[in-house]
Amino acid sequence: MRPAIKEDAACKRQLANASSAREPIHACADINSAADLLHKKADSVISHAIGQELRAIRRSRKMTISDLAQETGLSISMMSRMENGSACPSINTLRLLSRALSTPLMAFFRSYEKEFNVQYVKSIIDTDVSLPPGFEDARHLLLRHSPSPESRLFVEPYLFVLTQGSTLECDAPRDGVKLIYILSGELTYRHGKQISQLRSGDTLFFYSGVPHGPERIVTSIVRYISVCSRLRN
Q1: pTM of this prediction exceeds 0.70
Q2: How much of the chain, in percent, has pLDDT values that exceed 70?
């Protein structure tokens, strides 16, 4: 028997306003644009981290930019751009800098390693946290990525466990990308006006700026991972 689906007026309006013109090619463009933006941001973080370490190591060796440029054969302008984080050195360039400064190559990544934390949640422990509206009967949020103040990347990985009696609602549109991976069971999932039949092992990847969410639980129980990535304001 199909479970009752709770849809408030706002949700209905969101679904009604989801443009039928959003064909797969447009959705792919949205996803690619968001992914490119995330990649560029990650490259920028790495470049600035390397630049900070390069400047600190150079100064600790009592060397000027001109001195280091002469030792490596690089231009002074390139040295300045690397230290400012506007240029990311290649591996070969890092090797040149490593030899000139008599420092391990990995020393240039110390600041980058400090930017992020590793979070670990044991599978036998349920984490009690607040869940999105409409998903109070889901099991728990696996973990939440807590970026450093310098990072704008925000990732929300959820584990959902839904049954035939679960209340289903669409998620509010939010810029970013989302991945759904079905661990077990079967359900139908709505993305705008498109409905996908998902079974164990299936993956759905989409732009999350369109109303979306589980439409119908087919089996008695469904378990799936939902990972949403976006840039913080």
Answers
A1: no
A2: 63
